[in-house]
């Protein structure tokens, strides 16, 4: 790895265990602990399982696509760079800024959630004080070194993983009658309209919930440029993490569906302010755990702190990558002696802090920020699918043999095509009700990230007159404009 003279360089210090936990921890959060119950309430136990399974398979295809490109070309801010190199510079420009924007405004959402969670124990202390502390904490973690970020994520993710494992064990014990009284068995799977409630439309609506739950797995691609042994660790992390995530989500939803009927009003809870109504809390209480609410509140706190920590890391690296590609001011590409893109970190922190401060001016800012960032992750997934489809075609067109690749994506070209189609369905179906009622304000908030992405894309395309790169001219060299990769550096 080389860097411009007079500055430091990105350090490859993230190990396989870090990458595995970063991808795993980025997915296990409030989507599983709190909102997973709403999927069962909407589509019934069978519909929820089908929706999560299909979305999980799609995410698997996406991650193997990202794995194939990242092991061949392990770059920081990888999938933005891939869009530029394999498709069109305008797509890379729009993808990078879209992803940076997504995480930059998600950080204040997560730290705000942390403050709300802390009010469970200390209700008389203003939540913004706790939020500010968390904001400073994640900045310091990212400021110190990439190793400090990796270690923090490892232990925060481990807490969440242990919680899920204990929950599954307790849930099975309740189903079999070992804990919590009489065995519940599988009676809730054929209770009233179960297992499928609402048919295909309900399953499609649950795709949205499932998609948001799985977002964050692509973080392993962002870390590629700082992985110690990218050829080995990225592929291993993707494979092991996918099966664990799918097992955790599918098994957890199965347990919740067995213990709680889909008509249970508690399944509709989707707010961190009401942790006592979380399916996890309810089931732990049923097993006789009196302090279940406090334990789950602590776990939710680790989840939102982890999300904020990962968000700051991801947005910083994406801004760094944008600068290296020539899409942002060059000084954002500066790296200090500790291997931190320090100006990209400070710039992102300033934007996130300003976004956090808007809640003191506009009380609804928290909700607006949540809605505005909603579809950014799906747009990033679309970019990964398109980039991989083009990468493999260009690789073959330039007389390379697929067997030369150290990691092969599963079922190409079906994988990226399937992911592209499903992501498009999710984006278009995000708020059909608003279109049916012609609720333009709701439509604008829900789909805000789509026109933002299109404006960025067409601005760059028109100004610089870019075109889709012919397959024969796709740059397959392992570098960005400001970053060189040498496999021997590992």
Automatic annotation (TrEMBL):
Transmembrane segments: 19-40, 46-63, 100-122, 128-146, 158-179, 199-221, 242-263, 283-308, 340-362, 368-389, 410-432, 444-462
Every Amino acid permease/ SLC12A domain range: 18-468
Major location (coarse): membrane
Keywords: Amino-acid transport, Membrane, Transmembrane, Transmembrane helix, Transport
PROSITE patterns xrefs: AMINO_ACID_PERMEASE_1
UniProt keyword Translocase present: no
Subcellular location: Membrane
Gene3D superfamilies associated with the record: Amino acid/polyamine transporter I
Keyword Iron: no
A Pfam family it matches: AA_permease
Membrane topology: Multi-pass membrane protein
Official protein name in the record: Amino acid permease
């Amino acid at each position: 790895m080389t860097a411009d003279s007079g500055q430091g360089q990105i350090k490859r210090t993230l190990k396989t265990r870090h990458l595995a936990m970063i991808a795993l921890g980025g997915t296990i959060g409030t989507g599983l602990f709190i909102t997973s119950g709403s999927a069962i309430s909407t589509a019934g136990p069978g519909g929820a399982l089908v929706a999560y399974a299909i979305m999980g398979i799609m995410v698997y295809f996406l991650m193997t696509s990202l794995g194939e490109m990242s092991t061949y070309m392990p770059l920081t801010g990888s999938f933005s760079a891939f869009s530029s190199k394999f498709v069109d510079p305008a797509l890379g420009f729009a993808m990078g800024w879209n992803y940076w924007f997504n995480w930059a405004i998600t950080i204040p959402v997560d730290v705000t959630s942390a403050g709300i969670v802390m009010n469970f124990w200390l209700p008389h202390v203003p939540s913004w004080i706790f939020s500010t502390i968390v904001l400073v904490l994640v900045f310091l973690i990212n400021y110190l070194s990439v190793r400090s970020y990796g270690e923090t994520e490892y232990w925060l993710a481990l807490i969440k993983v242990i919680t899920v494992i204990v929950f599954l064990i307790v849930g099975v014990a309740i189903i079999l009658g070992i804990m919590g009284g009489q065995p519940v068995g599988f009676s809730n799977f054929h209770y009233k309209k179960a297992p499928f409630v609402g048919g295909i439309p309900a399953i499609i609506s649950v795709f949205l919930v499932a998609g948001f739950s799985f977002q964050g797995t692509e973080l392993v691609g962002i870390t590629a440029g700082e992985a110690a042994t990218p050829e080995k660790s990225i592929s291993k992390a993707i494979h092991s993490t996918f099966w664990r995530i799918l097992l955790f989500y599918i098994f957890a939803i199965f347990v919740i569906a067995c213990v709680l009927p889909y008509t249970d009003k508690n399944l509709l809870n989707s707010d961190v302010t009401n942790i006592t109504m979380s399916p996890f809390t309810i089931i732990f209480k049923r097993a006789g755990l009196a302090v279940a609410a406090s334990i789950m509140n602590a776990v939710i706190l680790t989840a939102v702190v982890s999300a904020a920590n990962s968000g700051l890391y991801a947005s910083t690296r994406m801004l760094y990558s944008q600068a290296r590609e020539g899409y942002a001011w060059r000084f954002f590409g500066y790296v200090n002696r500790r291997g931190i893109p320090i100006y990209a970190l400070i710039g992102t922190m300033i934007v996130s802090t300003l976004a956090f401060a808007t809640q003191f001016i506009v009380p609804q800012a928290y909700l607006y920020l949540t809605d505005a960032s909603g579809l950014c992750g799906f747009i990033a997934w679309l970019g990964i699918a398109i980039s991989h489809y083009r990468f493999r075609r260009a690789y073959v067109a330039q007389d390379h043999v697929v067997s030369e690749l150290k990691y092969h994506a599963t079922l190409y070209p079906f994988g990226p095509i399937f992911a592209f189609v499903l992501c498009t369905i999710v984006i278009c179906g995000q708020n059909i009700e608003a279109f049916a009622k012609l609720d333009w304000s709701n439509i604008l908030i829900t789909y805000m990230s789509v026109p933002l992405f299109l404006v960025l894309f067409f601005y760059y395309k028109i100004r610089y007159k870019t075109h889709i790169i012919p397959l024969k001219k796709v740059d397959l060299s392992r570098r960005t404009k400001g970053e060189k990769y040498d496999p021997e550096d590992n």
